[in-house]
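Please decode residue identities from the backbone states below.
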């Protein structure tokens, strides 16, 4: 292989590798950028919807300016949501800034590499021209003819003709390839500039959002001041609140005893029918399906916020007061529909004075409990499917309080519903 051909092939291979690297970078950067943007918008929208829902609950509860413990709990939740919103947005903007700096750095590197390749390309052209000049000292058509007719024999003349044709074709092909590579590099450089501009536009947009969030921080300050005012008001009513707590504890204890009793009765009833009921194919299949859905079960109401979590709960006003929750309490809108979180069979419908009606649903080895229901739309023995309507939530009109109490049991063992419901953290 001749020197110019070797030089041209080396150049083409180098440029080909370089093209792949640039294309890979552009593709990766665009994908990452799209993911960041999508995640940002989804997260932003989700938290904003939660804030709007919480704000509406506060308006509903606080319409008569009567600030209750429920109002305080929801206000705390709203402050938490707004703080999460600010933190999340700051994190995304910080990441966008890193992406922008990286894109600028890569743009500079790409420009430098393109300049270097242009120098190499120009040198290659110069070397190529010298080679042509050395091989053909004369470019006139008659010299080509003379080059052919001066052959010693017909065979040599034929080879010279082929050589001239192949050389002309090779020179044209190499010229086209070099021009195409230059155009490709130019286009890729333009693409990288466009990508950088997109990142800059996105960063400016997020900076505007951050400016908006400064107003949100001011709103948080207002909420915290309101929280302090509510705390001060409730602290003055210590005797009244502690009396309410005693009454509530009595009702909760009664509810817990009743639920435990019902579950024991249902297990005993099933065991009486079949001593090996836990091992039946139907029970095992339903239990396994329920277990597989841990962390992805739908909420017992379409919209709501958790105001009391599972386990030991510290009182929001009095630090020395603690309660224990067998499940979670979800505040929601008046008239909200209560729905099943999974398919199963309605085992029992019961009533607790002051707490409304309750429903126990069997899911094999698992049970779900829904209490604080106004109207029940199912009956014992009904087979139900996931998200099926069970009834409507009870509203305490004195306190404008609408909440559902939800529990999950596996046999006699209580479970934390937050571990089972979708995004209940």
């Amino acid at each position: 292989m001749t020197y110019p051909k070797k030089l041209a092939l080396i150049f083409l291979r180098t440029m080909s590798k370089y093209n792949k690297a640039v294309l890979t970078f552009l593709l990766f950067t665009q994908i990452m950028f799209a993911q960041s943007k999508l995640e940002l918008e989804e997260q932003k929208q989700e938290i904003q919807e939660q804030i709007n829902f919480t704000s509406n609950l506060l308006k509903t509860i606080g319409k008569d300016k009567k600030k209750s413990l429920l109002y305080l709990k929801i206000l705390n939740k709203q402050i938490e949501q707004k703080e999460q919103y600010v933190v999340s947005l700051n994190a995304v903007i910080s990441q966008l800034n890193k992406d922008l700096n990286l894109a600028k750095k890569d743009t500079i590197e790409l420009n430098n590499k393109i300049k270097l390749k242009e120098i190499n390309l120009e040198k290659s052209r110069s070397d190529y021209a010298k080679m042509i000049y050395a091989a053909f000292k004369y470019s006139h058509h008659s010299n080509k003819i003379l080059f052919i007719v001066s052959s010693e024999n017909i065979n040599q003349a034929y080879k010279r003709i082929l050589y001239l044709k192949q050389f002309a074709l090779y020179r044209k092909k190499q010229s086209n390839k070099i021009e195409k590579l230059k155009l490709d590099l130019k286009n890729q450089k333009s693409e990288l500039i466009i990508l950088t501009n997109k990142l800059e536009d996105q960063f400016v947009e997020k900076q505007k959002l951050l400016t908006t969030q400064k107003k949100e921080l001011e709103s948080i300050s207002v909420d915290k001041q309101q929280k302090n005012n509510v705390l001060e008001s409730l602290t003055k009513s210590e005797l009244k609140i502690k009396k309410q707590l005693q009454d509530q504890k009595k009702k909760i204890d009664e509810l817990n005893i009743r639920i435990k009793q019902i579950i024991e009765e249902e297990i005993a009833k099933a065991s009486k029918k079949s001593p090996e009921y836990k091992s039946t194919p139907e029970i095992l299949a339903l239990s396994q399906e329920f277990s597989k859905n841990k962390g992805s079960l739908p909420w017992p109401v379409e919209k709501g916020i958790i105001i009391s979590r599972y386990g030991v709960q510290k009182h929001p006003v009095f630090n020395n007061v603690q309660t224990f929750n067998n499940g979670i309490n979800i505040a929601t809108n008046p008239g909200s529909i209560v729905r099943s979180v999974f398919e199963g069979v309605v085992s029992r419908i019961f009533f607790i004075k002051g707490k409304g009606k309750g429903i126990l649903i069997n899911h094999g080895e698992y049970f779900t409990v829904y209490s604080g229901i106004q109207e029940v739309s199912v009956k014992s023995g009904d087979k139900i499917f996931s998200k099926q309507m069970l009834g409507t939530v009870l509203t305490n009109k004195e306190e404008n309080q609408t909440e559902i109490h939800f529990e999950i049991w596996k046999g006699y063992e209580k479970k934390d519903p937050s571990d089972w419901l979708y995004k209940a953290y």
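Observation: The chain is about 65% helix and 15% strand.
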